[in-house]
Amino acid sequence: MSLREDAPSLAVVGVTGAVGQEFLSVLSDRSFPYSSIKMLASKRSAGKRFTFEDKEYIIEELSADSFSGVDIALFSAGASISKKFGPIAVDFGSIVVDDSSAFRMDEDVPLVIPEVNPEALSHIKLGSGKGALIANPNCSTIICLMAATPLHQRAKLAASGAGAAAMEELEQQTREVLEGKQPTCEIFKQQNNMNVKVTATCIRVPVMRAHAESVNLQFEEPLDEDTARTILSNAPGVVVIDDRTSHRFPTPLAVSNKDEVAVGRIRRDVSLDGNYGLDLFVCSDQIRKGAALNAIQIAEMLL
Ligand SMILES: NC(=O)c1ccc[n+]([C@@H]2O[C@H](COP(=O)([O-])OP(=O)(O)OC[C@H]3O[C@@H](n4cnc5c(N)ncnc54)[C@H](OP(=O)(O)O)[C@@H]3O)[C@@H](O)[C@H]2O)c1
Q1: Out of 17, 65, 193, 299, which residue is the most buried by the measure of CB atoms under 10 Å away?
Q2: Whose CA is closest to 138, among 174, 104, 175?
Q3: Which atom number of ligand 1 is nearest to the Cα of residue 16?
């Protein structure tokens, strides 16, 4: 039980949904301190009662008046709801952690994975009275970057190998392409964004939870399989499951309801000379680390 008078007041927007329910589980599992929680959803759910941590709550309909006195608002009711009500919450002084795609491409909104770029939050202070928006990256992106970042820190992933100015140009090209504009090509000789042809068949597979991703990484500096395995074994929030003898690798079931991102099938990319490429198989619960857990880790950093 983490109900405390001196703790921040919370709102959960979309509390009846898959991510909203997971917010409550993660708050409870991590004993996140709160003084009150507003349980918000649509008109359809307003008035329904439920118990959370021994206290009865009544779901309220989300409205423009919902955020008075709310310190931290956790949003997971879809992008259109976030676009409409996120700025309203900020005007009330709430810090919004948003799980939708609404603000991910907004350059003024920090896009944060606590294990990857915690520094992006340094200017946001709880209790300052000033509201702010913080975006959770897409669930597939979070899961992939949890594995890729520790390896990047050692051997530099090739996309950033061309330096900071090139990374900025890649970001600029991404915005321009999404806005339908001609991309700037000063450092890259041609459009580098969305310029890979991929042919794929995407299907929903019958598992209840978790995303599985086959990831190919190319590096500026050599990185062999064993070193990568050691780096990943020591990375926060990552667990290595890579036992070729007994055929134990990451699976959706093994990571369901778990916090960690599991990495396995770590092998050299034999299509490249030397140790400049790695293939990985990454699996994680997208409702947990891909959504609710990541958002609550962000909120924890504000405490
Ligand atoms: N599921 C995932 O794996 C996942 C992962 C990462 C991010 N996300 C993002 O999280 C968000 C929610 O996803 P979800 O899977 O949790 O969806 P969901 O299970 O369908 O839940 C949607 C929630 O939004 C509420 N809602 C819908 N219309 C509303 C309105 N007009 N006003 C207030 N509340 C409203 C619903 O309330 P009612 O019950 O009252 O309709 C429900 O609580 C989406 O933006 C999604 O992209 C999802």
Answers
A1: 299
A2: 104
A3: 43
